[in-house]
Design a protein that fits this description.
The complex is a heterodimer of chains A (about 375) and B (about 100).
Chain A lengths: L6 H7 L5 H16 L6 E5 L2 H9 L10 E5 L4 H4 L2 H12 L3 E5 L12 H6 L4 E4 L2 H9 L5 E7 L1 H13 L5 E7 L2 H10 L8 E4 H7 L5 H7 L3 E4 L3 H16 L5 E3 L11 H10 E8 L3 E10 L8 H4 L5 H4 L12 H5 L23 H4 L4 H8 L10
Parallel strand pairs in A: 1-2, 1-7, 3-4, 3-5, 5-6, 7-8, 8-9
Antiparallel strand pairs in A: 10-11
Helix pairs in contact in A: 1-2, 2-12, 3-18, 8-13
Chain B lengths: L4 E9 L2 E6 L2 E6 L12 E5 L2 E6 L7 H11 L5 H11 L2 E2 L4
Antiparallel strand pairs in B: 1-2, 1-4, 2-3, 3-6, 4-5
Classes of the chains: A alpha/beta (about 375), B alpha+beta (about 100).
The complex binds iron/sulfur cluster.
Chain lengths: ~375, ~100
């Protein structure tokens, strides 16, 4: 598949972005990293799209050996907790029509996934966005629930649709998550060796880069916002490693064409007028204070949790032991393990027979590595 | 899903823009775009909504890279599939 293993291949791929420039930047990154004089230097990104780009363009092959670029909790589907999937499963089992993003379909709950309920006759439909879910709800009298997953980038769309008004038979089961608080959790983990964060450009387009300033100061860690093109990632890493080297816990914005310091005000207003942050578990990681987005009271009428009775014990009383107990997806999302450290990776667990959410989602580290071979040339966690 | 997809604004009708995505015209909602957009601007879109106006002179090689990704990627390529999903989240052009 598209595994680009060396600088020349990367350069050839970047014909629109001057191959020479990519080579030059890789050399600069190596130089800056080595100037720190110790190894490994470990930094974390928190975005499945960053991991996709790193793996797809074979960027780890041009990163210096001394630099570990680790994916953290950047896959919203992967950190959706089992009880949240169970809620959607129970709604579908009750006869409610459930709309979901495709990635969520095969994510295991404690007993079943939405794909399982669908196979048993439940009405579960995959949509690309909440707009489509509303359209489909308009065509029926049935109760329809949109199982809303994703980070702030996706939550703003959910918020905008709710603010614009939805049909009476439509409600939202929010599993939306908010990234900034989980960075604090990762920074506080005793096992953590993270020395700086690469923040996801499009989430920061919403929140603004300023959101990370307090974090940087409090945890004495630099944060660099960057985009998704190979050169964006290289530029972001160079800046981040420079800040690590100089001991400067600052926020730098390397994606100014999409991100400002203040962020997208109308989007923030929509987001916070519809949602409030509450604490909740992120699958396999920890309880994250303010990490989950739930509908505010004034939107109780479109909140599936308040519209329906969802009795989770119904499922939990008969949860069987299964392979998922061996899944280390949580450790991978926390950045303390790599997919290659999982005994099931590539044998009992692959994209056709995923055991954990990290192999289901297109933003899951296991799935990304399985497709693009991201584990090549990697020096951590195995 | 954080990747988003850029496109060029062709026309605007109230809260909706017709946006050209690599030759395909779709409707994108402008409810939460950060600043007013006009035809000729580019917008970064996520699940059917424009989230950021990008001036034409700043879009640079971004469009070309997306185009290359969509043109050359295998069916199962995750990144390309996510971009196709983003385009899928926009609405088809209104017939009226
Ligand atoms: S390879 Fe499969 S079982 Fe192992 S951590 Fe990844 S998703 Fe879980």
């Amino acid at each position: 598949m598209n595994v680009l293993r060396n600088r020349d291949e990367l350069g050839a791929h970047l014909r629109f972005q001057e191959p020479g420039k990519a080579r030059e930047m890789a050399a600069t990154l190596a130089h800056v990293t080595r100037s720190i004089g110790r190894e490994p230097v470990s930094v974390m990104h928190v975005c499945g799209s960053h991991e996709q780009a790193i793996a797809r363009y074979g960027l780890r092959a041009v990163f210096p050996r001394e630099l570990d670029v680790i994916m953290g909790p950047g896959c919203p589907v992967c950190v959706t907790d089992v009880p949240e999937v169970d809620e959607a499963v129970l709604l579908a089992a009750q006869g409610v029509r459930v709309f979901t993003y495709g990635d969520m379909l095969r994510v295991p709950g404690s007993v079943k996934s939405l794909a399982d309920v669908k196979a048993e006759g439940g009405k579960v439909d995959v949509v690309y966005g909440i707009g489509q879910a509303v359209q489909l709800a308009c065509e029926t009298q049935e109760e329809c629930v949109f199982f809303a997953s994703g980070f702030e980038t996706t939550a703003v769309a959910t918020a905008a649709v709710i603010l614009a008004g939805v049909p009476e038979n439509f409600s939202v089961l929010s599993a939306h998550k908010y990234i900034p608080p989980v960075m604090e959790i990762v920074a506080e983990m005793p096992q953590t060796r993270i020395e700086g964060f690469l923040a996801a450009g499009h989430a920061a387009a919403i929140t603004g880069s300023a959101i990370f300033e307090r974090f940087a100061e409090r945890y004495k860690l630099p944060v660099v916002v960057t985009g998704f093109e190979p050169l964006d990632i290289l530029a972001g890493l160079i800046r981040l490693v420079e800040l690590v080297r100089d001991g400067r816990a600052e926020v730098a914005n390397m994606y100014p064409r999409c991100v400002t310091r203040e962020g997208n005000r109308p989007a923030q207003e929509a987001l916070w007028s519809v949602f409030r942050p509450i604490g909740g578990r992120w699958r396999g990681i920890a309880h994250v204070p303010n990490g989950n987005l739930r509908l505010r009271d004034r939107f109780a009428h479109v909140d599936a949790r308040r519209r329906f009775t969802i009795d989770l014990h119904q499922l939990w009383d008969r949860a069987p032991a299964n392979l998922t107990q061996h899944c280390i997806c949580g450790d991978i999302m926390a950045g303390i393990a790599a997919p290659t450290g999982c005994s099931l990776y590539g044998n009992q667990c692959d994209p056709d027979h995923p055991v954990g959410a990290c192999m289901v989602s297109s933003e899951g580290t296991c799935r990304i590595w399985h497709q693009y071979g991201g584990h090549l040339d990697l020096g951590y966690g195995s | 899903m954080c990747l988003g997809v850029p496109g060029e604004v062709v026309s605007i009708d109230g809260n909706t823009a017709t946006v050209d995505f690599f030759g395909v015209r779709r409707q994108v909602r402008l409810d939460i775009v950060d600043e007013p957009v006009k035809p000729g601007d580019y917008v970064m879109n996520h699940v059917g909504f424009a989230i950021r106006r990008i001036a034409p002179e700043e879009i640079g090689e971004t469009i070309a890279l997306y185009e290359l990704l969509l043109r050359t990627a295998a069916e199962e390529d995750l990144m390309a599939a996510d971009v196709r999903g983003e385009i899928g989240a926009t609405e088809g052009e209104r017939s009226a």
